[in-house]
Design a protein that fits this description.
This protein has 264 residues and is an alpha/beta fold. 40% of the residues lie in helices and 24% in strands. The protein has a six-stranded mixed sheet with strand order 6-7-8-3-9-10, with helices on both faces. The chain has a four-stranded antiparallel sheet with strand order 2-1-4-5, with helices on one face. Helix 3 packs across helix 4 and helix 3 packs parallel to helix 5.
Length: 264
């Protein structure tokens, strides 16, 4: 992780009629950082992702990526700037093979690759996420964990500077969660910055450098996992029980001693 800021969220507000889904949210992400975004259901997390990657334009505020204002740009232009996204609800192109799905991600990514080069990148990414043996299988034949990896592979094939991970651990069993967290760490080791929404608190606590907490569309806390877990506002709004916060911190300490998270 460096001190260079790659993404700035400045006073972003998004309304839907009378509902303020995101309310004056500001924070920044540094290059090489894993930043967790947490909060109760309906807190505005996915809406904020949608503002960042161009699904919605903010009603107020702006998004600055690598020194350039990108708020208001359509999603395909944001992708070309170097932001990719893995969605919570995976929607692979079921009638295409696993490889062809990832080729699409490479062809429409940051470098706008021709098909031959896109196929080479797709092969390399499939090796990275562990799906190479399934490259010629129809995507619709994959199980849930494999489809999650395919969603990750499509995003990585775009060769982004920043990847948005929207609950990539949802629906996975404990072994699959651990394996996916290893992939997340390896993505960071490749120099890609990560912003991730996650409801599995032990997971986000153990993989994130810092965490932003939203509640009712507003940022209520930001800091290290330890700082966030001990914040009274976070305990009241999200964790619910001080004992839960202590348990999460103890679990994080055990994992760090075991070398599960070697970055600082």
């Amino acid at each position: 992780m460096t001190d260079q800021v790659i993404l700035q969220i400045e006073g972003v507000t998004k309304r839907f009629g009378g509902l303020v889904a995101v309310n004056q949210v500001s924070f920044e992400i540094r290059e090489g950082e894993i930043l967790g975004l947490i909060g109760p259901n309906g807190a505005g997390k996915t809406t904020l992702f949608n503002v960042i990657n161009g699904v919605y334009a903010p009603d107020e505020g702006r998004v600055i990526f690598r020194g350039e204002v990108i708020s208001g740009l359509p999603s395909y232009e944001v992708a070309r700037k170097g932001i990719a996204r893995a969605h919570q609800v995976v929607r692979p192109l079921n009638e295409l093979t696993v490889l062809e799905n990832v080729v699409v991600g490479a062809a429409y990514g940051r470098r706008n690759l021709p098909l031959g080069e896109a196929a080479r990148v797709a092969d390399e990414v499939l090796e990275f996420v562990g799906l190479a043996p399934k490259r010629h299988l129809l995507a619709g034949k994959l199980n849930v964990a494999e489809k999650k990896r395919l969603e990750m592979a499509r995003a990585l094939a775009a060769q982004p500077y920043l990847i948005l991970l929207d609950e990539v651990l949802a629906g996975l069993n404990p072994g699959e969660v651990a394996a996916m967290l290893d992939v997340v760490r390896q993505i960071r080791e490749r120099g890609i910055t990560i912003l991730m929404i996650e409801h599995l608190m032990h997971a986000v606590m153990n993989v994130s450098d810092r965490i932003v907490v939203l509640d009712y569309g507003s940022k209520i806390a930001m800091g290290t996992p330890q700082e966030v877990a001990n914040d009274p506002k976070v305990i009241e709004a999200y964790l619910g029980d001080p004992k839960m916060a202590q348990h999460l911190l103890e679990e994080q300490g055990e994992n760090e001693e075991g070398g599960a998270d070697g970055h600082s």
